[in-house]
């Protein structure tokens, strides 16, 4: 009896620690949307090289502006208008069910020279989903995008940066490269459009992948911050390109 009790003193703290560790990345993510936590989790294996967070352009001042979670009937048209005004092409990681609801917005993206990429069908947590569920989420959105635009998506971004090793392997098996980002426009430490813009401008580097959102939550601040960011980057000599073009400039 005594020995059982004693072993419980050992087992319970270990279990608690294990539980805490498995939840830690979620907590971190909750507080800092562009947290680097998944890179910390996967630092010990070779997966890092298969996750694109920035592209080495050999100093060429090219950056990619990417949008997640749309299309949205309010924010996506506003953003498309901004991109048109500043004459630049961006990359939209769309959610399949939103794309199905607003197919005309995907057509507008393609017609304006933007790229449409895969952010799953329903935006679930892919770190906990089954193999079949992950496959279905990627595949279903792949088909939605193809049906609307006639083009095959080539980049995949896991929702909320939640994924595991297998998620990347499944995406690769479907012909996708997994793309994360270097900096996120929306950030808990930047409460106003001006602060959001300043933070992103301060971090300017060649080959950066900038993440912004055009759906899911209120994105008024993002819409207000974008022209400030674009103007300043262009003043600094940066050119905004799609992800495909950015990767075409990758140094050998
Ligand atoms: Zn998302």
TrEMBL record:
SUPFAM superfamilies: Glycoside hydrolase/deacetylase (SSF88713). One of its GO terms (biological process) is carbohydrate metabolic process. It holds the Pfam family Polysacc_deac_1. InterPro entries: Glyco_hydro/deAcase_b/a-brl, NODB_dom, Polysacc_deacetylase_ArnD. Residues 61-241 form the NodB homology domain. It comes from the Bacteria. CDD domains: CE4_NodB_like_6s_7s. Transmembrane segments: none annotated. GO terms for molecular function: hydrolase activity, acting on carbon-nitrogen (but not peptide) bonds. This is Polysaccharide deacetylase. It comes from Syntrophomonas zehnderi OL-4.
